[in-house]
């Protein structure tokens, strides 16, 4: 309940939970959607998994050097763009490339959200925030298979529906304070004042 007791922490908790949901929804959805694209299903899935594994190493310099909000926006907008373009070129080899790039961006956004949650919420509610965010990501991942099935009704519907949440949450992350390089918070008071201090500086 401490996540929702005060206005600033409550706002951060709601926005972060939506970001977690979007990451789970998009990442697991794309992982399943890749298998339905043109070409051999086993090759497509293997390519997707291999490139995502390699792309995961990009998260190390990403977290070390870049600011959280613009990085999250770039990753989500790139993922969303790939999916919107994918909706227009189903049945081509390029579609596999777009889906793989989208998966890599979604995966790195997932890693970033883990780190950002630790930085935004103080120690007294950090584990609760991570648990709540993880639960919301599972909600997204549970919805994803049903969205994949919608391609039976219209081939462009699934990629478009997967493209919308990262686009929306990429914009919503601007509500959150920038946390790159800050000292980890320990008290609820520090968590409540985090965004307010940014507004004054």
Might you state the CATH topology name?
Growth Hormone, Chain: A
Q: At CATH's second level, what is the architecture?
A: Up-down Bundle
Q: Just give the CATH class.
A: Mainly Alpha
Which strand-content bin applies to the residues?
Answer: under 5%
Q: What low-confidence regions span 5 or more consecutive residues with pLDDT below 50? A: none
Question: Can you write the helix and strand succession as a string?
Answer: HHHHHHHH
Overall domain count: 1
The average pLDDT score comes to: 85
Number of helices: 8
Radius of gyration: 18 Å
Structural class: mainly alpha
Largest sheet: none
User: What's the helical proportion of residues?
Assistant: over 70%
Shape: elongated
Number of strands: 0
The N- and C-terminal alpha carbons lie at a distance of 30 Å
* CATH homologous superfamily descriptor: MFS general substrate transporter like domains
Membrane topology: Multi-pass membrane protein
Keywords: Membrane, Transmembrane, Transmembrane helix
Transmembrane segments: 12-35, 41-60, 72-88, 94-115, 127-150, 156-176
Pfam families: Sugar_tr
3D architecture notes:
- With 201 residues, the chain is mostly helical.
- It has a single domain (2-176), classed as Growth Hormone, Chain: A (Up-down Bundle).
- The chain has helices at residues 7-33, 41-55, 59-65, 68-86, 93-120, 123-149, 157-172, 188-200.
- The two termini are 30 Å apart.
- The mean pLDDT is 85.
């Amino acid at each position: 309940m401490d996540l929702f007791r005060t206005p600033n922490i409550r706002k951060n908790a709601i926005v972060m939970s939506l970001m977690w949901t979007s990451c789970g929804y998009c990442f697991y959805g794309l992982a399943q959607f890749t298998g339905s694209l043109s070409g051999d299903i086993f090759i497509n899935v293997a390519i997707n998994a291999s490139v995502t594994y390699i792309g995961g190493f990009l998260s190390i310099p990403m977290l070390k050097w870049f600011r959280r909000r613009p990085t999250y926006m770039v990753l989500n907008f790139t993922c969303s763009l790939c999916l919107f373009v994918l909706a227009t070129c189903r049945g081509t080899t390029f579609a596999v490339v777009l889906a793989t790039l989208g998966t890599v961006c979604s995966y790195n956004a997932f890693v970033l959200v883990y780190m950002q949650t630790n930085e935004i919420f103080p120690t007294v509610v950090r584990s609760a925030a991570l648990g709540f965010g993880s639960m919301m990501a599972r909600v997204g991942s549970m919805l994803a298979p049903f969205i994949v099935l919608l391609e039976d009704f219209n081939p462009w519907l699934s990629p478009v529906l997967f493209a919308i949440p990262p686009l929306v949450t990429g914009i919503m992350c601007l509500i959150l304070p920038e946390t790159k390089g800050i000292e980890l918070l320990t008290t609820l008071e520090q968590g409540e004042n985090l965004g307010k201090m940014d507004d004054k500086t």
